[in-house]
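Customer escalation, tier 2.

The customer says the design service returned an amino acid string that "doesn't look like it belongs to this structure." They asked us to rerun it and document both sides in this ticket. The original structure tokens are below, unchanged.
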């Protein structure tokens, strides 16, 4: 595997020389923005029409009322625990034939309780893979051995950083729910922390984009929505289903608490195993 030829430094991953990056890729950007503007059911249809398989798997996690659930759009066809025991995983992109569940086609796995923008996130990984000769061999090797070297961990980190920055910088165009907003901002901050040992620019990016302020603002927005929802319920408005209450949307929000919004997506992010669902640091 020509891994050394495709391993890019953090700075190289953000330049014109990055062939696999979605940032700065007009075609990938147009396709992902178009996808993000669709209703969830149409998002699934659109991705599948492009030859990408999508499987929704039951996470087994309890989801509070009002939370967007992929399982309300399509019945789960299996259990997430069948492919990984990692807690909090919301989505995964698999190369064709990487696992039995991905037989014959590149496959996006969505957790039943994943955010709406999780599908956009994984779609962007598919776009990366199409131009990245290192990804599939390395990912398949990781599934087989369960080990990754520091250099291989950086491969996964660089791909995630590219996608997280794209999502953050295009967030408003994706019709995000409040849980999408909190999840994307908090995950980007976590990714920056994971890069601290080799990418000084990551912390500067967090400051430049004022992510702490954005996260606090979104949490406050969520809190106000939650207060309004509870007040309506107490007043007998019937919540989201009552005749006089708020009408349900195709992508209901918010989630029950700021902690619940981020915990599942950031749980144990300092562990290299979350760079790939089967990865453990090489010893």
């Amino acid at each position: 595997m020509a891994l050394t030829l495709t391993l890019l430094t953090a700075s190289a991953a953000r330049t014109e020389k990055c062939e696999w990056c979605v940032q700065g890729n007009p075609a990938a950007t147009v396709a992902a923005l178009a996808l993000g503007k669709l209703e969830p059911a149409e998002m699934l249809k659109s991705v599948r029409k492009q030859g990408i398989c999508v499987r929704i798997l039951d996470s087994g996690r309890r989801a509070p009322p009002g939370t967007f659930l992929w399982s309300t759009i399509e019945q789960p066809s299996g259990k997430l625990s069948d492919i990984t025991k990692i807690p909090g995983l919301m989505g995964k992109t698999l190369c064709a034939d990487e696992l039995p569940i991905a037989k014959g086609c590149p496959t996006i796995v969505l957790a039943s309780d994943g955010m709406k923008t999780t599908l956009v996130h994984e779609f962007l990984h598919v776009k990366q893979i199409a131009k990245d000769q290192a990804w599939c061999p390395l990912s398949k090797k990781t599934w087989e051995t369960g080990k990754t070297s520091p250099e291989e961990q950086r491969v996964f980190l660089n791909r995630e950083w590219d996608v997280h920055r794209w999502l953050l910088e295009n967030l408003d165009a994706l019709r995000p729910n409040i849980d999408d907003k909190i999840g994307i901002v908090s995950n980007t901050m976590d990714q920056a922390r994971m890069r601290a040992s080799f990418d000084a620019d990551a912390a500067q990016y967090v400051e430049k984009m004022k992510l702490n302020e954005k996260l606090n603002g979104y949490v406050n927005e969520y809190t106000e929505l939650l207060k309004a929802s509870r007040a309506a319920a107490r007043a007998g408005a019937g919540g989201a289903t009552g005749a006089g209450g708020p009408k349900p949307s195709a992508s209901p929000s918010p989630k029950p608490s700021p902690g619940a919004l981020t915990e599942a997506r950031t749980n144990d992010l300092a562990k290299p195993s979350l760079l790939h669902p089967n990865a453990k640091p090489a010893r």
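Tier 2 assessment: The sequence is consistent with the input. The chain has one domain: 19-275. Confidence is low (pLDDT under 50) at residues 1-16, 239-275, 279-283. Sent an explanation to the customer and offered a walkthrough call.
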